[in-house]
Design brief:
The structure is a single chain. By secondary structure, the protein is an alpha/beta fold. Helix content is 31%, strand content 26%. It is built from seven helices and eleven strands. β1, α1 and β2 form a beta-alpha-beta unit. The radius of gyration is 16 Å and the shape is globular. The termini are close together.
């Protein structure tokens, strides 16, 4: 069955994509293809104010990363917050990644702040708490690639914490089978993370950068497992 996936693009990351990545949304398309998901896509330039005009509960609405902060009050961010709230009330199935994870949390009653403990980068392991998620991570650990400073500090009402770590308490949460979010980036590849750490991290503490680069060699990220879990969780026909 072909799945319809709407990507509400929140950034195009100019100057940060290497030549081997044509655009940011292609990372998600490649990830979903890797796990065998047949999908067609509609891309919304949400960072320019473009949003879906309606909600189809048979489709998936994906809110990905951004260099902006979810607690900013830029007009397009406020518009997206309102859209998330209304779409959720109408039964939209949503997946949030990094900025999207934080935006969904804020829109539905949670809180987002800059983390005083610093920047998260490279591969990080988190402990899986949710029984449904644990079936996709049999060793009880989810390893994803990260690039973030902000964190969800308070979960929305009715949210179930799916994964946690010492660095980031709220690594992943779900609300029923309607919403799933990840602070990490299932769509990132090691090559892309290495590119960011090598070429786009002048403002990053050198010790953090070196530790992040080391993690790329020491741990294998599990983005495909996270994608399988998310797509199966949000599958209305399951």
């Amino acid at each position: 069955m072909t799945r319809h996936i709407n990507i509400l693009l929140c950034d195009t990351f100019p100057g940060r994509l290497p030549a081997f990545i044509p655009n940011y949304e292609s990372l998600f398309m490649d990830l979903f293809a890797e796990v065998g998901a047949e999908a067609d896509y509609r891309i919304y330039q949400t960072w320019q104010g473009e949003l879906p005009t309606g909600v189809n509960t048979d489709e998936l609405y994906l809110i990905p990363g951004s260099l902006d902060s979810a607690y900013d009050d830029k007009p397009w961010i406020l518009a997206l917050l309102q859209w998330i709230e209304k779409a959720y009330a109408r039964g939209a199935r949503m997946m949030g990644v990094c900025f999207g994870h934080q935006m969904i949390a804020r829109a539905l009653g949670g809180e987002v702040k800059a983390y005083e403990g610093g920047f998260g980068a490279g591969v990080r392991a988190s402990r899986v708490l949710d029984e449904g998620m644990a079936r996709y991570f049999p060793d009880g650990e989810m390893r994803l690639l990260y690039s973030h400073h902000d964190q969800v500090t308070v979960l929305p009402p009715d949210a179930v914490l799916c994964a946690t770590s010492d660095f980031c308490k709220n690594e992943s949460f779900r609300i029923g089978r309607q919403v799933i979010t990840f602070q990490g980036h299932p769509e990132f590849t090691v090559a892309y993370s290495r590119h960011l750490l090598t070429n786009c991290s002048d403002d990053l503490d050198e010790a953090v950068r070196l530790n992040a680069l080391r993690s790329l060699d020491e741990m294998e990220p599990m983005g495909p497992a996270a994608a399988r879990y998310a797509l199966n969780l949000l599958n209305k026909n399951r």
